[in-house]
Structures are given as structure tokens and as C-alpha cells.
Specification:
Number of domains: 3
Number of helices: 13
Number of strands: 18
Oligomer: single chain
CATH topology of the largest domain: Pnp Oxidase, Chain A
Strand order of the largest sheet: 2-1-5-10
Largest sheet: 4 strands, antiparallel
CATH superfamily of the largest domain: Electron Transport, Fmn-binding Protein, Chain A
CATH class of the largest domain: Mainly Beta
Distance between the termini: 52 Å
Bound molecules: flavin mononucleotide
Structural class: alpha+beta
Length: 400
Amino acid sequence: MHVDVEPRAFYFGTPVLLLSTLSEDGSTNIAPLSCAWWLNTSCLLGIGSRSKTVQNLRRSGKCVITLPSEDLVETIGHLALSSGVFPLPACKAESSFAYIADKFGHVGLHSTPSSLVRPARVTECPVQLEARGKGAKPIAPRPASAPRRMKTATDDGPGPKAAPAATVDGPARATDNSRSMKESERSAGVRLWLRQEGDAWFGLAERAERLVAAAVGRTREEAARVLSGCLSPGLPSRSGEGSSEFAEATARMLAAIEAGDERGKRLELADECLGEPDAAVFRLAAAIPLGYASSYGRIAAAAGTIAREVGRLMARNPLYPIVPCHRVVGSDYALVGYRGMTSGSDLDDKLARLRAEARGHQDELVLEAARGLVVFPVERVIARAQRGRSGREDGQLSLW
Ligand SMILES: Cc1cc2nc3c(=O)[nH]c(=O)nc-3n(C[C@H](O)[C@H](O)[C@H](O)COP(=O)(O)O)c2cc1C
């Protein structure tokens, strides 16, 4: 039961609270904070300047302060190394933070719409205070000459480390050795890029100029969200900085593929991030030429896995549009599934894409460069769909 109350003072002694703020896309971001000091019915919060929470507060000014009960300790611990900022600032990426778009879902919390503000309340928290910001005061950076503790402190790391934005802007005090180690770690890590080409935004995750994931969105935020969903949880990544010829060229290639021009398509995968046989499956699916399709089973046989596994990988396709998952169908040319759905408008979309790609081919092709994968004209899939037969007509999925 939810009861609205208006106490005269809010002298809460909670060691940690959860702050809900509104992100640009209308979703609610939550962050645990322990730096909170109550003054009558106001609360002074100390928040790292590079957090999503501060970005959101600056933009919308509204929030919900929720006080968790002790049974949520573990849940809050799981939020510790997550941030809603995309791409992650370098300081967070280096501290093993991960970008999490949906923190509620990530830790199994639920949201309840608020009464007075747009950010949602955290259903599981017994005390929920809908609030508006009164102002923000940056804490001045620590002077360059001031002594500084070693690099474990970041501007917005968890708990006590979170202390003030003061620690960010001072000069790094690492020794030459530690600096060169950092550089080598950096060059080996996964870097995330967002680039606009025409009306679309492209996200790419790259390790040493080989692709880990790609994504397309109508907006920067959408591309970022899709890209983050393509990355394995816990994969350390950081935002790319400055210019990158690789990112520019790849974004241009992805835009051309989206526009139907696959002449410049190439796929150099970071196999060590994807693992086998997944990387082999992605490579094989990427090799299916425009106007052709292949089956889950044929790809599985060539990659050394099972058809259902190919279905799972195509459903989450972390390399769209370079991997044309819509060109993978059942052995009897049934559409089977698309975007993880096995019926409804998603299948209609899959069919529409294949229709747009029909080039009037008649014969099967053997792709020697792709482990001898056999591909067939999409017209066969279209004809099968026109006959009105569904992929489930025999009561089973025809992946092979
Ligand atoms: C128990 C706990 C207490 C925290 N206290 C604070 C705090 O007082 N101030 C702060 O800026 N960050 C604090 N953090 C870290 C933030 O939650 C963290 O920086 C998070 O990335 C912010 O998320 P956001 O970038 O999505 O806003 C705390 C984290 C935990 C787990």
C-alpha cells in the first residue's frame, strides 16, 4: 500500500539512497548515492559530475529520492559499477564500469509512475520522495599543486571514492611505468564509437580495428542503446576519443549497406571477443549475398554448431546490418523468426526486406570462400510465404 505523507522534516539516517532521474528517451535512470545530507525537507546530494544522474538533473531538474530497505543491499551492490552514460567516460571505463541502459531490468527492480514528476519511483523501496532540484554547485577542481591520492579515486566512483568532482581535473600523477601500462591496456580494450551518416546513427564496438558489434538507430541515443544491448555483459569497453579513420570508414560502409549497396562490405571480426563457433556463424551469415538466403541448418553445419544456436545468434544479431540476419530462413524456406519473434509483424518485416532484395536469381550458389555455404534465391522464400504456409505448420520449427 502506498501512503502519501508530508512530514515536517526529513531527517533520514539512510546510508544509501536511490536517485531516479529522467533520461532523454523518457526512461528512468537510477543511481545509488550515499552522499546525502538532509536539511528540514531539503536534501543536499554529492554527485559525480560525469554521471548520467547529473546530466539528467541538469536537463529536467526533477527526481525521486527513494530510500531502500536493508533487504535491497545486494541489489544495490549490483548497481555499483553501472552507469547510464553512453559512451562511458574514460575514467569509468577504466574502473570496470559498464553502460547499462535499463538499470531496473538489470537488477530486477520495478518502477511505478510518480504522481508529481516524470522520473519513476522504485517500487521495492518503502520510502519514495518526489522532488525537484533547487540548484547545483560545482566543487572547484583541486589545485595542481595539491597532494593527490593514487588513481583509485575517480570523480564518480562508488561510495567514499566518489568524493568530489575535485579529483578529476587535476593532473594525473601516475609514474611513467603505470602510464605506459595504461596505454597498452587501452589499445587492447573495446572502443565504442557513434557516428552519424545521413539521417541515421551508427554505433560500433571495435577492438584493435576489428568489429565486436555494430548497430543502427534513428537517433544517437537509440544507436547507443542498441549497441550496448549487443555487447556481452561485463565486456570492458570505453568510448573512443578523438578521430578514428576506422570508425569513419566503418560507419560509411554500414550506411552504404543500409542503403542497399554491399559492394564495399567487409567483415573483420574480433574473434577473441565473440568466441567460436559464434564468430564463424556471423561470418557465414554475413557472406550471404544480396538476393539470396540460406538456412539455419546449412550455416550451422558449416560453422560446426546446431541450427537452434544459429537461430539464437540471428535473433540477437549484434552485427546488424553487416550480418543480414533476415536472409537466414528455414530449410523449407519458411521465415521461422526475426528479431527474436516467431510470428506477427516482425515476420512481415523480414519478408518485406527479402522482397526488396529479390534480384530474379534462379539457381543456388556455393560460396567457396564461406566454407562452401549453399545459398538460394530469396524468391523461394517469398514463394513459400505467398503460399500462406507458416514455418510452424508441422508443429515444429524448421531450422534445418
Ligand atoms: C553504495 C553506493 C553509494 C554511492 N554513493 C555515491 C555518491 O554519494 N555520489 C556519487 O556521485 N556516486 C555514488 N555512487 C556511485 C554512483 O552510483 C555511480 O557513479 C553511478 O555510475 C552513477 O550512475 P549514473 O552515471 O547512471 O548516474 C555510489 C554507489 C554505490 C554502490
